Amino acid sequence: MGGVHHAELAAYLKSRRDRIRPSDVGLPTGPRRRVPGLRREEVAQLAGLSADYYTELERGRGAQPSTQVLVSLARALRLNGDGRDHLFHLADRPIPPAAHGPAAHVQPGLLHLLDQLTTTPAQIITDLHEILVQNPLAATLVGRPPALRGPEASFVHRWFTDPDARIVYPVEDHPHHSRVFVADLQAVAARRGHDTEVTRMVAGLRARSPEFAALWDTHDVALRRTDHKRIVHPVLGLIELDCHNLFSEDGCQRLLWFTAPPGTEGADQLELLSVIGTQDMSDAREMPDARDMPDARDMPDADELGRQQA
């Protein structure tokens, strides 16, 4: 079990949990709440852990938490950089040195904004399009990210190497997204300079994807700030949305959210999406880390969802 400081870790987790209001993380505040902050099961839900496992941690028992668990807890508990480092120290785990990748510490400013976006799909991603954290509506709209490491954690990498990654967009829109992804990666590569993570990713994609290689050689450069997207949803069908990006000061992370003009079909579909999320139903895409979600064939269709909402 290494040098885990079990009692101190348990006390620290509880103290951090007590200081977070449910409204801070987009959770409802009920009249019968007996704790000053979040409940244990709410922290577990936000971190993607089982309630039993988290409870054991707060009781000072259980195995040494993994790096992935600690990263998830740091995000769920909204820890700043020093708070996250202290959490890793108490768990006797080395602090992740990388500023990039799925293990990166989410920048507090972006995380605070994400917490306020409770009625629209939103997520925070890295500059290489690795999902760091999603709100429930984003998970319902585009699915949860697969539990992958290295280049495969990047949606851009999967876009050019895994055909299944493209099912979220209509086939006729694929050339547009390919061009935009490559131009965006060109801008990221220029900003990072001679960064080994980016250079290895580009070299790997050039070797595996003729489409990527041809687009890379055009040298088009443009960060993806806004876009109009058509998303294929297995229950609601084709959803037309506007996609916006807000960049962190260092450019390493982005808050991405989806909207639709009032009165449009997309706006109506977003309302139905919230019904799906409330009913805890999967988006039917077979994401590797989907947890205990019903099969899409058991879901009501869009008309039925509209009757339920009415």
Molecular structure report:
It is a single chain. This protein is of the alpha+beta class and 310 residues long. It is built from 13 helices and 5 strands. A 5-stranded antiparallel β-sheet has the order 2-1-5-4-3, with helices on both faces. The longest helix has 19 residues, at 174-192. Residues 280-284 and 286-310 have low confidence and may be disordered.
The main sheet orders its strands as: 2-1-5-4-3
Alpha-carbon distance between the two ends: 53 Å
Note the total helix count: 13
Order of helices and strands: HHHHHHEEHHHHHEEEHH
What are its keywords?
single chain, 310 residues, alpha+beta, 5-stranded antiparallel beta sheet, 43% helix
Structure at a glance:
The chain is of the alpha+beta class and 310 residues long. Helix content is 43%, strand content 11%. Strands 2-1-5-4-3 form a 5-stranded antiparallel sheet, with helices on both faces.
Strand-helix topology:
Layout: H1 6-18, H2 40-47, H3 51-58, H4 67-76, H5 81-90, H6 108-116, E1 122-126, E2 131-134, H7 136-142, H8 155-161, H9 174-192, H10 196-208, H11 210-216, E3 226-233, E4 237-247, E5 253-259, H12 265-278, H13 302-309
Antiparallel strand pairs: 1-2, 1-5, 3-4, 4-5
